[in-house]
Specification:
By secondary structure, this protein is α/β, with parallel strands linked by helices. The chain has helices at about 35-45, 65-80, 95-105, 120-130, 135-140, 150-155, 160-165, 190, 205-215, 230-245, 255, 260-275, 290-305, 325-330, 350-355, 415-430; strands at about 1-5, 20-25, 25-30, 55, 60-65, 85, 110, 145-150, 180-185, 195-200, 225, 230, 245-250, 280-285, 310, 315-320, 335-340, 360-365, 375-380, 390-395, 400. The radius of gyration is 23 Å and the shape is globular.
């Protein structure tokens, strides 16, 4: 049995880079340093795998050659009037760059999973920017941590131990030197280990953020209670925020996908800006998919926009709500779809899934999912961070190289190669 050390985990936005993978006879036999989610992914990486490309014939998916699957995918996308593409947050930056090139070639729309999670965070940052830093700075310096509408002990299990309250940093060496505040609608696992738990009424984040801003600025709160939180508790928390030496606000989709949407983020940024008049305070979204930050970054490099990019006019346009893939599908406008490393059939709105099932879908993914059941073409891939190497971005925007641990099954290629094959085939069809 051999060990592969310093492996980067391809699960969540933490991108923990200290894993040790045990390999025996070319297969993963064990994992050291990983969380429960990481261990489950590594030990079950081969479950529900698709081993051969498939094309739908007479209503049934049938195994075929890679060449035929690529040709069929190229035909569907090249002949569509308004194709869309979605996913991209569970693959490499190199694949994302190729995917953008492909969708520009066919004049379609390309979107990533931000549209159903932290899209409002991106919009809020567009408005006024936001003060942030790296997770390493937080580990070394932060003495006050807020998790707002986020439950990292279940969604990002090692976030607290590696980067915040339980981390041993250069200047903050123990749990006793840090204060943890959790704001949520229920008492989550993370709330149970918090020093202060603020239980807020659902959909009232904007009101509580406004009240905290009022208290931080030293103005009087007229109401006895705001968003289900008593005035004295709001004032107590405001005093904690002002008196810390280095504070950080982490927020989750519980803040972005509730009433207020990006206005909640706008107000949270304003709160942090107010706090910087008294102390050092930063903020950071708790990004879920391991390379959703990389998807936003690569989209922005190549198009100028982080998600929901429309090439149908020959140049990139960006107007979330109009050019978002979810909205396009709900309106029934798309006539073909390319799905990469995602399963929208299991989590998109019902009307969007209904339309997706009526149009030809090209799916590039290593596993069998709900989207596989409606796909016209299915091309399996090797897994990034397990069977192939590539680049991903941590939730704080730090690019990290992901190692290859074992060889992929015979015949399976990285998705960047498959996307390049489809793009080359489309250009050949068009005489380019």
């Amino acid at each position: 049995m051999s060990e592969v050390r310093d492996v980067v985990c391809p699960f969540c936005g933490c991108l923990c880079d200290d894993l040790v993978i045990l390999v025996e006879e070319g297969k993963i036999a064990g994992v050291k340093n990983g969380c429960a989610l990481s261990i489950t992914k590594y030990l079950n990486y081969n479950r529900e795998r698709i081993s051969k490309p498939m094309v739908r014939k007479n209503g049934e998916l049938e195994e075929t050659s890679l060449e035929e699957a690529v040709n069929r995918a190229a035909e569907l996308l090249a002949n569509a009037d308004y194709p869309v593409s979605y996913g991209w947050s569970n693959t490499s930056c190199e694949a994302i760059a190729t995917g953008i090139e492909l969708m520009e070639e066919v004049g379609g729309v390309i979107d990533n999973t931000s549209v159903v999670c932290h899209g409002p965070s991106v919009l809020g940052v567009h408005e006024v920017g936001h003060p942030t830093c790296t997770l390493g700075e937080i580990k070394n310096r932060a003495d006050l941590i807020i998790y707002w509408a986020s439950n990292p002990l279940q969604s990002h299990p090692r976030h607290l131990s590696r980067y915040t309250v339980m981390a041993r940093g250069k200047f903050r060496k123990s749990r006793d030197e840090r204060t943890l505040i959790v704001v949520d609608v229920r008492k989550t696992y993370t709330a149970r280990v918090a020093d202060y738990f603020i239980q807020i009424q659902p959909g009232k984040d904007y009101e509580l953020l406004s009240a905290l801003r009022t208290a931080v600025r030293g103005e009087e709160l007229e109401q006895e209670e705001v968003a289900g939180v008593k005035r004295e508790h709001i004032e107590e928390v405001a005093d904690l925020l002002i008196s810390c030496e280095f504070g950080v606000l982490f927020w989750g989709v519980g803040l972005t996908m509730t009433g207020g949407k990006y206005r909640n983020i706008d107000l949270a940024i304003s709160l942090v800006r107010d706090l910087n008049a008294y102390t050092k305070f930063v903020m950071m979204p708790m990004r879920g998919h391991y390379n959703v930050v990389g998807a936003n970054a690569v989209f922005t490099w190549q198009t100028g926009y982080p998600y929901a990019v429309d090439f149908s006019h020959g140049y990139p346009r960006y107007n979330p709500g109009e050019t978002s893939v979810t909205d396009i599908l709900v309106r029934g406008e798309a006539d073909a779809a390319l799905i990469v490393a995602s399963d929208p059939a299991s989590n998109f709105p019902r009307k969007a899934v209904e339309h997706l099932s009526r149009i030809p879908v090209v799916l590039i993914d290593p596993r069998w999912t709900s989207t596989t059941d409606i796909a016209e073409v299915v091309i399996p891939t090797a897994m990034l961070g397990i069977e192939v190497e590539g680049t991903a971005y941590r939730m704080d925007g730090v690019p990290i190289h992901m190692k290859k641990v074992i060889n992929p099954p015979d015949g399976l290629k990285p998705d960047v190669e498959i996307l390049r094959m489809i793009l080359d085939r489309i250009r050949a069809m068009r005489g380019g």
